[in-house]
Write a structure and sequence with these properties.
Elements lengths: L4 E4 L3 H14 L5 H6 L7 E7 L2 E13 L3 E11 L8 H15 L4 E4 L6 H9 L14
Parallel strand pairs: 4-5
Antiparallel strand pairs: 1-2, 2-3, 3-4
């Protein structure tokens, strides 16, 4: 079996594999919308591969805001359901932290859906701390 690796997803074939995994997190959005994220200027998608199989992805960008200065914002992080609990999510988070340091970021941040206590427990176990709330309104 090939070693595990994390690399940027840049090809159509890579996105073909990534979209179903992303839709495990964002099941309420259609596939063309998910694919449109690829066109965003600063959105980068990285995949965790094991034995040639894509098992998880993380979408990230860098941002500047008053309360966090320059930081890496995780838009999406998901490991395919059958591969959760194997350390892939922790590896993706660790990768993002290194990626962010290389870009002079001071923080890594993300939003967690209300009621998703399992994910929140995972993030806290990995050293992320709850900081506040994200609030929104649909337009």
């Amino acid at each position: 079996m090939d070693a595990t690796r994390i690399e940027e997803v840049t090809t159509d074939e890579g996105w073909d594999c990534a979209v179903p995994i992303l839709r495990e997190l964002w099941s309420d959005v259609d596939e063309p919308f998910v694919r449109s994220w690829r066109e965003e200027d600063d959105y980068r998608l990285f995949g965790r591969y094991e034995g040639g199989e894509l098992v998880g992805v993380v979408g990230v960008s860098t941002q500047r805001v008053l309360h966090h200065a320059r930081h890496a914002w995780i838009h999406d992080i998901v490991v395919t359901g059958s591969r959760r609990g194997e350390g892939h999510g922790a590896a993706l988070l660790s990768f993002v932290e290194s990626w962010a340091r290389e870009r002079d970021c001071e923080y890594v941040a993300l939003a967690n859906r209300l009621g998703n206590e399992g994910a929140l427990d995972f993030y806290e176990a990995e050293g992320l701390e709850p900081w506040g709330y994200v609030v929104e309104t649909e337009l």
